[in-house]
Design brief:
The structure is a single chain. The chain is an alpha/beta fold. The chain has 13 helices and 14 strands. The strands form 3 sheets. Strands 1, 5, 6, 7, 8, 11, 12, 13 and 14 form a 9-stranded mixed sheet that branches. A 3-stranded antiparallel sheet has the order 2-3-4, covered by helices on one side. It binds adenosine-5'-diphosphate and magnesium ion (MG). Magnesium ion binds next to helix 4 and helix 9.
């Protein structure tokens, strides 16, 4: 009886999830901050009053050759649009079902895309973990909330015979090089040190015996309590600081990927499940023109542009049901290959937007990228072809 109740619950939950599609895009517009408030008069973004709360309009003003100002309006529609007054609670309410899917054994990816300063880290993580102790819970982002939800649910599932083990990894991809953010402090810098040539600390993506994508030499941490995640975020923050002279600058130019492996076994029924939850804070999407930058800066710019474009290409190729999916064109897609490509995988992309007039052009680019992603449905093409 237990078995059938549990599998019914899972089936129902996942039927609902399928109906919603396996690629979803949410738009989140952050509020104006501090000085921006005084500086901004007419905001480029507006939110049509619709029941589904899924529309946003961007108005772009420009001057024509005769000095006359003209404006153009671009309407966008996503699965959900969060206006600036949306709380972390409201956002997580819409995410928690996907977290449940990971617990049910599905591969899940949640991305935050957008220009630097648009609210990606705020959405994924919340404020710095170090200052998070004793702070208002409302301010916490998706990572700590997801872990908390998983703990609450796994303890409920214990009564039904499920035992779960949770393991986490946290890495950063900078200039197409992997960095371990959970390495004991200080060690992570070695991985990128070309001169060190230390095989022990070199992080390489490989396929294990069962065909799973893994990273060699990466620290895996047992996430054995909801509180553990604060420790983990703090260590990651510390490692970032060690690796960079300017931490913010650095984090805006790298992707950070937090991965949680959820392995469940039911001691009563013998069932088992393996879910993976990837929470990805992408590098800033701002168009960095190649002209003018040189050396390290140019290399960074090219690496970011290339890997973000590659992410779009992979999603589009999956949606088209292409036979060749260009995972290997970037470290990010190579790393996420399994989670992105599995027929039952679920992907959510947050497109984060800064509402300031000065960011209109970047906002337009972000919203257009997100629209492309939104038009994709991975697996549908394959299922229809089958
Ligand atoms: P990104 O990671 O995209 O560069 P951040 O998440 O660091 O951007 O956000 C930039 C600034 O805006 C930070 O000071 C952050 O606290 C603030 N911020 C972002 N989103 C919100 C929000 N929804 N509400 C209040 N402040 C926000
Ligand atoms: Mg950030």
């Amino acid at each position: 009886k237990l078995r059938s109740e549990e599998s019914m619950r899972r089936k129902l939950h996942n039927t609902i999830q399928e109906l919603k599609g396996n690629i979803r895009v949410f738009c989140r517009v952050r509020p104006l901050l501090g000085e921006e408030k005084a500086a901004a008069s007419l905001l480029p973004l507006s939110f049509p009053d619709c029941e589904d709360q899924n529309e946003v309009e961007l108005m772009q003003s420009s001057e024509n050759a005769l000095g006359k100002s003209t404006s153009k309006t671009f309407p966008f529609k996503f699965d959900r649009v969060f206006a600036p007054d949306s709380s972390q609670n409201m956002v997580f309410d819409e995410v928690s079902q996907l977290i449940q899917s990971a617990l049910d054994g599905y591969p899940v990816c949640i991305f935050a895309y957008g220009q630097t300063g648009s609210g990606k880290t705020h959405t994924m993580q919340g404020p710095d973990a170090i200052s998070a102790s004793g702070m208002d819970e409302e301010i916490l982002g998706i990572i700590p909330r997801a872990v908390k939800q998983i703990y609450e649910n796994t303890s409920k599932l214990t009564e039904r015979g499920w035992e779960y083990s949770l393991e986490g990894q946290f890495l950063e991809i900078y200039n197409e090089t992997l960095q371990d953010l959970l390495a004991p402090s200080g060690r992570s810098t070695q991985a990128s040190d070309k001169q060190a040539g230390d095989k022990q600390s070199k992080l390489d993506i490989y396929q294990d015996n069962e065909g799973h994508t893994r990273v060699k030499n990466l620290t895996m941490v047992k996430v054995d309590s909801a509180e553990r995640v604060h420790w983990l975020l703090a260590r990651a923050a510390e490692n970032r600081t060690v690796a960079a002279t300017n931490c913010n600058e650095r984090s805006s130019r790298s992707h950070s990927v937090f991965t949680l492996y959820l392995r469940g076994k039911n001691t009563l029924t013998g069932e088992s499940s393996t879910g993976v939850l990837n929470l990805i804070d992408l590098a800033g999407s701002e168009r960095l023109s190649n002209s003018g930058s040189s050396g390290d800066r140019l290399k960074e710019t090219q690496a970011i542009n290339k890997s973000l474009a590659c992410l779009g290409d992979v999603i589009a190729a999956l949606a088209k049901g292409s036979r060749h999916i260009p995972y290997r064109n970037s470290k990010l897609t190579h790393l996420l290959q399994e989670s992105l490509g599995a027929g039952n995988s679920k992907t959510l992309m947050f497109v984060c937007v800064n509402p300031s007039p000065g960011s209109t052009q970047e906002s337009l680019c972000s919203l257009q990228f997100a629209t492309k992603v939104n038009s994709c449905q991975i697996g549908t093409a394959r299922r229809q072809a089958a």
